[in-house]
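Supplementary Methods S3. Complex input for the heme C-bound model.
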Amino acid sequence: MGTIQIANAGRLWRIGSAAKPVNQSDRDCIMKRILTLSIAIMAVSALSAGAADAKTTYEKDCAKCHGADGKGETKMGKKQGAKDYTDAKVQAELKDEAAFKAIKEGYKKDGKEVMKPSEGLSDDEIKGLVAYMRKFKK
Ligand code: HEC
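Predicted complex, serialized as structure tokens:
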């Protein structure tokens, strides 16, 4: 597959530069460009994948109570007593370890479970969710 792509790129290059024959060093140059470009694309998509994950998980699993905006003003959020995470005071009272523990093990208020433990989230994903919720702060 790789060789075919490089051969095609060579052909395009030849057409582009008015039928100039492609020599070995041109070909090396094209190959380097293709390599650099694919590495750059991979790096960018790896970065955005991490950031999108917390948002996707939050919107799928958490927003129904905490709200997409973190205010907890959803039907379920109000019923369960979710706090307003845009409030700087709420954010200040919430410690990272407590947030982590609540997401991992669930959260009880007066002995009643108001939030279930998360399922199938890695520690890194949980940390990503805590970081995501911190951004609600106004
Ligand atoms: C069924 C409703 C519900 C769902 C779904 C839910 N939560 Fe909660 N969560 C609550 C309630 C209620 C509280 C307690 C009041 C508060 O802190 O907002 C809480 C508390 C928290 C806290 C603070 C814990 C503390 O020690 O004060 C964090 C952080 C949190 N939730 C994150 C999440 C994340 C992340 C998700 C999604 C994976 C999620 N919650 C899903 C209802 C929910």
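The first helix runs from residue 2 to 16. Strands lie at 107-109, 112-115.
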